[in-house]
Amino acid sequence: MLNLLLLLLLCLSSFLSSLPQVQSATLPSDIYVLKALKASIKPNSISPWSCLGSWNFSIDPCSLPRRTSFICGVSCSPDSTRVTSLVLDPVRYSGTLTPLISQLTQLTQLDLSENSFYGPIPSSLSSLAKLETLSLRSNFFTGTIPSSLTKLASLVSLDFSNNALTGLLPVTLSSLSGLTTMDLSFNKLTGSLPKLPPNLVNLALKANSLSGSLSPSSFQGLTQLEVVELGANRFTGAVQAWFFLIPSLQQFDLSNNSFTSIEIQKLGNTKNSNLVAVDLGFNRIEGYLPVNLATFPQMASLTLRYNRFRGPIPWEYYKKVSNQSLRRLFLDGNFLNGKPPAGFFSTGSGSSVAGSFGYNCLESCPASSQLCLPSQKPTSVCRKVYGGRTSP
């Protein structure tokens, strides 16, 4: 009988050990931080059905299975002892970001996007040595970008877009050697571009108040850079040949700035370029349309609209369209004159291009063609620009 009882106890012990472990395993300091985060958010912005609404601290955050508590927002290490990811749902939680987040030292991902957090970004985030993804996109954060964040050596993706951040970009930005994607668009940042992180692939700084000229020193060594978005800032001066020849560059947007010239007369060899799309619209660029832009073999979209270009549309642009390479060509809002190549308006290859030649000083631009909309500038305006005549 005793042996049977011992056998039953052994079986029961084995069965219990096979059950999911629900006892508290999460490091107490991690639980403390999660409690502080929830406490820093206004209760009326926490819906019962939201991630934070499910956080019930009578249950261990990293325990499994999770059926009614901590159903989302938190991911933990394989041994269920540390919080490794904090991704809140975009339901407009309102509150400040507690500096205690820095105590989640195993965190690799912090994403609070599309909520209503406000106040400064805590400089203590620099203690998150393993952080790879940091996104505070579409909130109401104010103040400057803490320079201490450039100590995040493991950071791969940084997104602070759509906030109200002010001040200069950190001068030590280039120390983020692992960073491949950075989006700081739609803020109120000022000053010039510092030296950028060397392994950037995607750079977005559009819709700020950045100023100064584009300097080669800012982009030095960026051999992997594919996309540059600097539109809607206050950059001035020339867009020079070196910028077009950034080794891996595929597309760039420098529209809505105050650039005054494109200096690519001696552009050099472009046959190995991957440049596909260029947007330099809504600047103050003067001179003739750069013929060299037609030498980029992959060029599919070219926007030079609403500048101060004059002279004829180069025949090389039409050749680029006729060989089915250039698919978008926006030249409207300049002072271009003469007769555009007739092939643009034929039923052949030229008809496949999307864009506009409107609001220039062109002659013989067919009113029936979509390319000629809107209508050309008044003759009086064109004669004033060209000293009493509208054609060469």
How much helix, percentage-wise, in residues? 10-25%
Structural class: alpha/beta
Radius of gyration: 29 Å
Q: How would you sum up the global shape?
A: elongated
Strand order in the sheet with the most strands? 1-2-4-6-8-10-12-14-16-18-20-22-24
- Strand-residue proportion: 15-25%
Instruction: Kindly state the number of beta strands.
Output: 25
Number of domains: 1
Tally of helical runs: 6
Give a short overview:
The protein has helices at residues 2-18, 28-39, 216-219, 241-244, 315-322, 379-385; strands spanning 74-76, 83-87, 94-96, 109-111, 116-120, 133-135, 140-143, 157-159, 164-168, 181-183, 188-191, 202-204, 209-212, 227-229, 234-240, 251-253, 258-263, 277-279, 286-288, 301-303, 308-311, 328-330, 335-338, 354-356, 361-362. By secondary structure, it is α/β, with parallel strands linked by helices.
Notes on the structure:
The chain has 392 residues and is of the alpha/beta class. The chain contains six helices and 25 strands. A 13-stranded mixed β-sheet has the order 1-2-4-6-8-10-12-14-16-18-20-22-24, with no helix packed on it. Strands 3-5-7-9-11-13-15-17 form an eight-stranded parallel β-sheet. A hairpin with a 6-residue loop joins strand 1 and strand 2.
